[in-house]
Amino acid sequence: MSDNSLRLVWVYPDLLSTYGDQGNALVVERRARQRGLDVTRIDVRSDQPVPTSGDIYLIGGGEDRPQRLAAERLRRDSGLARAAGNGAIIFSVCAGYQILGHEFINDLDQRQPGLGLLDVVSTRGEGERCVGDVLGDIDPPLGLPQLTGFENHQGITHLGPTARPFARTRLGKGNGTGDGTEGAYNDTVFGTYMHGPVLARNPQIADLLLRLALDVNALPPTDDRWYEALRSERITAAQQPA
Ligand code: GLN
């Protein structure tokens, strides 16, 4: 971060942007502008280099084949890994989350290396695909309200010792390992299975990313009535019997 400017990088919208994940970029951008920041949003297609000078990087979910291509290109490019090494904030969803881990199973049934930015390994779940609304309690040190999101994945993700669970599920599968965890994070790198888009359902997570980027403990308040209406609609819907 320099001065009042924020560089927001949306990684590979051409490969990784399912279930409204592009909304995450819109939400971060809007909430940053509402706080008076001068936002430069950089959408990086998969045939372009990932800049290393971003403050916040967003990476979304995707189908199995685009996920394989995205992981190959991100490893070859190395920009995202170098940005992480510089302390950039990275927020990833589903396929993006799996790519940030050590490895995942790709569409060719092969173990494919990820970027190793999160201490997680993803395998393919043997059971039913994890699909539906999720409610969870975000890791208490992060100080955020209830998590609401929508999951749709076959992969399941195991956390290693240096990854903290991002949340504990009250409803839904999350990481799918049966231990009630959902997502993972370390200092500045976050992964979640939540679509929705998750930052529209949980604007406080977008603000967490901004606080980390700005290195501040609090941000000026915003009028969040629209978000609150969406949150309560989805939380109520999730609690209805199927
Ligand atoms: N292909 C991955 C899986 O099914 C990720 C899916 C997604 O991003 N929605 O686990």
UniProtKB/TrEMBL annotation:
Binding, substrate: R129
Q: Where is the active site?
A: C94 (nucleophile), H195
Q: Which residues form the CobB/CobQ-like glutamine amidotransferase domain?
A: 8-202
| Classification via HAMAP family | Lipid_II_synth_GatD (MF_02213)
Q: SUPFAM superfamilies from the xrefs?
A: Class I glutamine amidotransferase-like (SSF52317)
Role description: The lipid II isoglutaminyl synthase complex catalyzes the formation of alpha-D-isoglutamine in the cell wall lipid II stem peptide. The GatD subunit catalyzes the hydrolysis of glutamine to glutamate and ammonia. The resulting ammonia molecule is channeled to the active site of MurT.
On assembly, the entry states: Forms a heterodimer with MurT.
* Name the record gives this protein: Lipid II isoglutaminyl synthase (glutamine-hydrolyzing) subunit GatD
Stretch forming the signal peptide: none
Which pathway is it part of?
Cell wall biogenesis; peptidoglycan biosynthesis
- Provide the reaction this enzyme catalyses: L-glutamine + H2O = L-glutamate + NH4(+); beta-D-GlcNAc-(1->4)-Mur2Ac(oyl-L-Ala-gamma-D-Glu-L-Lys-D-Ala-D-Ala)-di-trans,octa-cis-undecaprenyl diphosphate + L-glutamine + ATP + H2O = beta-D-GlcNAc-(1->4)-Mur2Ac(oyl-L-Ala-D-isoglutaminyl-L-Lys-D-Ala-D-Ala)-di-trans,octa-cis-undecaprenyl diphosphate + L-glutamate + ADP + phosphate + H(+)
Domain of life, per the record? Bacteria
The UniProt similarity line reads:
Belongs to the CobB/CobQ family. GatD subfamily.
Concerning Pfam families, the annotation shows: GATase_3 (PF07685)
Keywords (alphabetical) are: Cell shape, Cell wall biogenesis/degradation, Glutamine amidotransferase, Hydrolase, Ligase, Peptidoglycan synthesis
UniProt organism field: Streptomyces physcomitrii
Does Transcription count among this protein's keywords?
no
Enzyme Commission number(s) from the entry: 6.3.5.13, 3.5.1.2
